[in-house]
Known about the structure:
alpha/beta, Rossmann fold, Alpha-Beta Plaits, 8-stranded mixed beta sheet, about 25% strand
Amino acid sequence: xxGLLFIDDEEGVRxxxxxxxxxxxxxxxxxENGKEGIEFIKQxxxxxxTVISDYKMPGLDGLATLSIIGSINPEITRIILTxxxxxxxxxxxxxxxxxxxxxxxxxxxxxxxxxxxxxxRKHLKxxxxxxxxxxxxxxxxxxxxxxxxxxxxxxxxxxxxxxxxKVPPEAIASFLNDSYFSPMGEIAYxxxxxxxxxxxxxxxxxxxxxxxxxxxxxxxxRCAIAIQQKAKEIDSSLDNQDxxxxxxxxxxxxxxxxxxxxxxxxxxxxxxxxxxxNIAARLESxxxxxxILINESTFKKIExxxxxxxxxxxxFKGISEPVEIYRIKI
Length: 330
């Protein structure tokens, strides 16, 4: 899903858009009014990632059109295009939940850059807290590729594979989304972590990328403690309902990683890769129900601030030296 739909009642403007975007790595579709555009989205939902609509059109105006499209699929990036560059129009667009605002006439290069910027901004907001997002806006270089120190948190549900074989798919999906991914993601955002990805029933959260803070390791550990506390609360409310339990193991590693935008033309993501990621994943696999395990680099960053107990070093596959391990006292 990476196509773009352009809606405008003027044929000349539609032709201009097609020319401006013909070299872009996505398919561009056109519609001449809001009704036609909405119908196209309904019939081609998997093909469109971005919709640009003219503001003033016969019948449904651009704001109403984009509002309906947003109700069909909120993941679609929605941009309003108008020759009426007024503050009132911009405010109306914002109030309708529109992702961006463009004005006519447009320069082709500027148009392409703006479409990309608005799309990246919309999707970035899904993975970072509002504070981190504002810091990225103030310093766009935060998204440039770099090698730097971060703290990586991995969280995983214990016994999930066996549980998923006994519980209906609908119940599993609801459980993961409502009882795990959503509440734990909110806790990560509260601690200014970036939700890097979901892998099955695992969550990977990065502290220190794309924006670095001096206390990233402390944030990561405090986030992990809050996640375990929330998991215990949710698990109690489940009361073994449908065989569902929320028992979590967490691993945290601090170290150097490469961070940047990686992927193909069709799919890109801002992510972090490196030994610190591998160690965090190994620690998470080793952690028992309700446990938080950290490596020595993390311990040195939080020493004196959070209580820990040392555990015997562990040898992990693919890592030459034994890893010093500490358990967080909750």
